[in-house]
Design a protein that fits this description.
Elements lengths: L1 H21 L2 E9 L2 E6 L3 E6 L13 E7 L2 E6 L1 H4 L16 E6 L4 E6 L4 E6 L3 E2 L16 E7 L2 E6 L7 H12 L1
Parallel strand pairs: 2-11, 5-7
Antiparallel strand pairs: 1-2, 1-8, 3-6, 4-5, 6-7, 9-10, 10-11
């Protein structure tokens, strides 16, 4: 009996050591943009909704598709395919309409991110993320360090982004203020 208790204690200790070596367990929302997989930490996403009617707003950057009313809140709607200047093989006319919107909230603003397919969740350890130096040279007024790393999950490579660093906050505030007025 004493040997069994010692054996279980050693297994528990090994499991704890293995967990601490891998780092914290993180929950991600994974979605596709132009055929590539991207992810955000799940705590950056408030909810996923069907994309509502979008009201276009003049004189905004091309990646800001307009604003939408989601549960009584006016949100700027962002197309990350446009924001990241990703190439698609389809023309604008034949490209499928984004069906879902990831609702993102921070203490400073609310916005929606357009995605074409239902996003999935993925659980990874910190050690599964290759934190590479900034490879982005971006002169658009946003934090150039919006790529947090590359998630390695089996044969998949998923770009982990910090959505709060992707968007110029001043543009979002201006857009919401204009549409609410």
């Amino acid at each position: 009996m004493e040997g069994e208790v010692s054996k279980h204690h050693n297994q528990d200790q090994h499991s704890k050591d293995e967990h601490s070596a891998k780092g914290a367990n993180l929950q991600l929302i994974v979605f596709k943009l132009a055929g590539e997989e991207y992810a955000m930490l799940i705590d950056q996403i408030k909810e996923v909704v069907l994309t509502p009617k979008i009201a276009k707003v003049p004189l905004t950057p091309k990646y800001i598709k307009g604003v939408a009313n989601i549960r009584g809140n006016i949100l700027a709607i962002i197309d990350l395919v446009e924001r990241f200047s990703l190439e698609t093989n389809l023309s604008a006319e034949t490209q499928p309409t984004p069906m879902f919107t990831l609702v993102v909230e921070s203490s400073e603003y609310k916005m929606g991110i357009l995605v074409k397919d239902v996003p999935n969740t993925l659980s990874v350890y910190e050690s599964d993320i290759d934190v590479s130096p900034s490879i982005i040279n971006d002169n658009s007024g946003v934090d150039a360090n919006y790529i947090n790393g590359i998630v390695k999950s089996g044969s998949r490579m998923i770009v982990l982004i910090d959505v709060h660093k992707v968007i110029n906050k001043d543009e979002i505030h201006k857009l919401i203020k204009e549409k609410s007025a």
